[in-house]
Each structure stands twice: as C-alpha cells, then as structure tokens.
C-alpha cells in the first residue's frame, strides 16, 4: 500500500482516523486534495505492512481503495494524479493550455538595465520575468549576484510591469527573503540533488521551478521533485535545461525527448530552457520552437538589451528584438498542437 484513495464522501473525522492508524505504524500521511478526490500518500517504509494490516485499512470508513505505486516517486507520479497539475501564479497559469513565456537576464546587474530588459520582454509578450540575485557561478571570482538588492530591483520590475518573478535560491538561509520577494523559487541545476534545500522549499507555499541536474537521469530528477512534494509543497515545475554529454558544439545537450517522456510519467508541468542548453544565442530560437512543438508547458529564455556587456551568459542571451520575433514564430506552432500563446 503506497496510496490510499478516499471515497468522495469521506468526512474529516474518517480522514483523521486513517491518519492516526498510519501514525501508529510509524507512517506519515501526505494528504492531497484534488478536484476529483482526496488521496493519501503513505510516507515511510510501506514494505513492512502485512497483508492483514493492509486489509484493515481498506476496511476503514471513507477508504475506497489502496494502490501500490511501482515507481519510486509517488506524489509526482501520473499513476496517482491523472490530470495535469496547473499552477496559478498571480493569475498566470503554468501547466494549462497557455504556454508560459519566462524571460529576462541571467543575473540582475543593476536597476537601470533590469528595468529596461523587463519592459522590453513584457512588450514582446513575456508573462514572467526571470533574473538571478544569487548566482551559482563556476568560478568564485565571477559576479555572484546582488543578493537582497537584486530581489528589491526584481520586485520593482514586477510593480511596474505586473510580471511575476522567477529567481534562484542557492542557500536555505535566504529562503525567507525569497518567500518575501519572489513568485516562483528556482532551484538550479547544480542544486537539484541538494536534498536539504529541496526539503526546505517543500515547507513553503511557493511554486518551485526545479531545473534538471547537469547529469541527472529523468528518474533522479523526479525523485528530487518527490523530495519537495513529500514535505507538502506540490507546486513543482520541472525545467529541462540540457544535460552534459560528450558533445562540445553546444554548452549542453538539450534532451527534448524528456518533455513527452515526462508527460507520461508525471502530472507536473514541464518547461524548457534552451538558453542554458545550447549556450549560443543563434541556436536558442530553433530549440525554443522545437520545445513548444514537443509539448512543453513553457519556455525560459535569457534576454539582455546589451548581451556583449552582460555580466554573465551574454553569449546565449537574445536581444529583445529577436525574442519578440521568436514569440511571433511560436504562436502558429502552439496553435498547431491546440495550445495558446
Ligand atoms: C540560470 O537559470 O541562470 C542558471 C544558472 O541555470 P542552470 O541552473 O540551469 O545552470
Ligand atoms: Mn544564466
């Protein structure tokens, strides 16, 4: 038994009795109230539950059925939640019919440039603003981000444009700040298996954009999502950003097949970041078009008004004009597969 499916008519009292019974066996209940029905994800070592114990749970009032989930990830699995998870962020939906367009610079560099970029991407049609205030840089001598000041600048851009903010968290000590300023908390590729960080963001009520680890398998990535969900935060957005392969023509190799594979395996939304995948601005638009055609729920693109002067990732950043053109190109592709931009 990994999942307890409850009857539509289940009462609060019946639910509490089931949770108590699990607690007596040292198991925790993760209650997920869906639109159709409520399910309990049983957390802990369920392999020790005997058949008799399992039957006694099945006989309890309010229980419809018990399910054994074969996959190691449970709450993230499509086996549990059949319908797509749709996340509402200040009125913008991710995971529904509309394709999310997240754009902005790699890092928040200063107020003037960030506001300039924010207005440009907004005008082009972006519905989320990205920008790092805490940057995971390969070298400790590279620009590390503006920290709190960067978050304040992002908040001002949100005020001026209305676009919700996506920004990265690198350390749990900054979580309160991120909760205060951001709308979506990004967990970067390098931290995909920072389990302490995953558990901590699992405790907050904010959507989490979970990037795929540099050499993570799809299953490891879904297990990382499971860490977050196991703590009660089910608002996880997966982001494919390329994986490390032997190929050096691009910064990473964009694994586009991850999109349709994940659509089968999980109910969570999946977006694609072609910028970090290819590492070259001239390849970003073709791969963004391919990502939408493959069924991605959104794309995340690095845009800069002066890429040659950018403090990080200038070589993969689109100028606003190219970004605007890309959005126009994406529209008929989205329409062809029954989606909207
Ligand atoms: C980023 O989005 O700026 C970033 C650092 O991405 P990744 O973690 O995918 O390298
Ligand atoms: Mn970047």
Describe what this molecule looks like in 3D.
With 341 residues, this protein is an alpha/beta fold. It has 2 domains: 3-67, 2-Layer Sandwich (Alpha-Beta Plaits); 87-336, TIM Barrel (Alpha-Beta Barrel). Helices cover 35% and strands 18% of the residues. A hairpin with a 2-residue loop joins strand 5 (87-89) and strand 6. 45% of the residues are buried. It binds phosphoenolpyruvate and manganese (II) ion (MN). Residues 106, 276, 302, 312-313 line the site of manganese (II) ion.
Keywords:
341 residues, alpha/beta, Alpha-Beta Plaits, TIM Barrel, eight-stranded parallel beta barrel, four-stranded antiparallel beta sheet, 14 strands, binds phosphoenolpyruvate, binds manganese (II) ion
The run of helices and strands is EHEEHEEEEHEHEHEHEHEHEHHEH
Structure ligands = phosphoenolpyruvate, manganese (II) ion
Q: State the CATH class of the largest domain.
A: Alpha Beta
CATH topology of the largest domain: TIM Barrel
Secondary structure layout:
Blueprint (H helix, E strand, L loop, with lengths): L2 E4 L5 H13 L3 E6 L4 E6 L7 H8 L4 E5 L19 E3 L2 E3 L5 E5 L6 H14 L3 E3 L17 H14 L3 E4 L6 H7 L2 E4 L7 H7 L6 E4 L6 H13 L5 E5 L17 H8 L4 E3 L1 H5 L2 H14 L3 E5 L17 H17 L5
Parallel strand pairs: 7-8, 7-14, 8-9, 9-10, 10-11, 11-12, 12-13, 13-14
Antiparallel strand pairs: 1-3, 1-4, 2-3, 5-6
Manganese (II) ion binds next to loops.
